[in-house]
Amino acid sequence: MRAATLMTAIALLAGCIITPASAGEKYLYGEPKLSAAIAGSNEFEPGDERQITVMIENSGLNTVKIVQPGIINGDVLPNTARLTSVALLPGDTPVRVKTDPQMIGDIAGGATAPASFVLKVERDAEPGVYSLPLQVTYTRLYATDQQGSDLTTYSWAEKTETLQLEIRVKEIVTIAVSDVGVESLNVGTEGFVHLKVRNNGFETAHAAVLKIARSGMSPVIPTDDSVFIGDLMPGQEAEATFKASVSKGAEAQTYPLTILLEYENSDHQTATADGVTIGIPVGGKIDFAVVASPAPVAPGQKAVLDVTFKNTGSATAHSAQARVSAVDPFTSDDDTAYLGEIAPGESKSARFTVSVDAGATEKIYGLDAEVRYRDALGNTQVSDTMKVDIEVRQTGGDLPLLPALLGLSLLGCIGYGAWTFRLRRRP
């Protein structure tokens, strides 16, 4: 037992004597090796504004390592990109970068780090592949100097690399309105909108359909909103005519209208070009005024009222008819009169037959009148209500009746007296 214990102690002592001192590790060569790529799609359309995520990858390796006693293990590897910052530049491209440079920290070998940028592609950008410079600035371990057994000095070097990010601008159709015209488009009526559009893009719009749409709360409302124009090649123009109505509460001024183009692209998919908002001039409404009231009428009589109506609006009224509403003390079996076509500024007279109650109070009465007409597209419209002033009083044809009878009697008496006087003077 004592012999076994002695042998074990001797073995342990021998092991302690022959075991080497603890060894350390030191990397002599290695540096960061960076690359960058866009996560997800790198395709843009002209006019796009979108955030992209760029992944920066460090594939740098540490190629030579020394392991020996007395070396202090370092806590920094030479292939690590430390304090990394990135800046995306537009370069000579139709792209605006709307994000400032940013810090993304340390990137160890074999690791990646993300950076996000907002890009805006110009609306007139030509299709193609563009390279955006990505400047990456970082600090790397340049050298390690061990002093003694407990001190290590690091030497650092700052480096800036320019990587290239590729984006692809797709071919699309963009439209521009080269001419706008209106016909009979007035407040409260329906008229025509004439458009000429041009394909300003770099792709042919196949089976294209041109559309108009109401812009917000604009009083210009499409009633016929789409026209098929077929294939529209880049630089080619097409014309189309639409129907639109204007709300009655609008004013004579210019209002917005949105223009759209639906088409089939080169991938045989349905696409829509970005909408274009244009101004549509709207004329004043068709309106009427009573410019001449009828002569006074007498109680208990039937009279013909001559009323003159004037078109004070900005468009022609077609197939116009005037109507008065007879109220007590008036009655009428003939309250509608045909005026026909009345151009702006033109006046026409209408005749209505009314009967006046015998007990009517002598004063001025107001009768409601309106004009029903058709606009340029044949839609029935009704004017605002107007007042026709009618005076009820004893007219000149009634008042002289009694004096006339008295006058005739007096003349008869005078004549009879003169005749009698002459007879008496005869011999």
TrEMBL record:
It comes from the Archaea. Gene3D superfamilies: Immunoglobulins (2.60.40.10). The keyword Cell division does not apply. This is S-layer protein. Keywords: Membrane, Transmembrane, Transmembrane helix. The lineage of its organism: Archaea, Methanobacteriati, Methanobacteriota, Stenosarchaea group, Methanomicrobia. Pfam families: NPCBM_assoc. The chain crosses the membrane at residues 401-421. Residues 298-373 form the Alpha-galactosidase NEW3 domain.
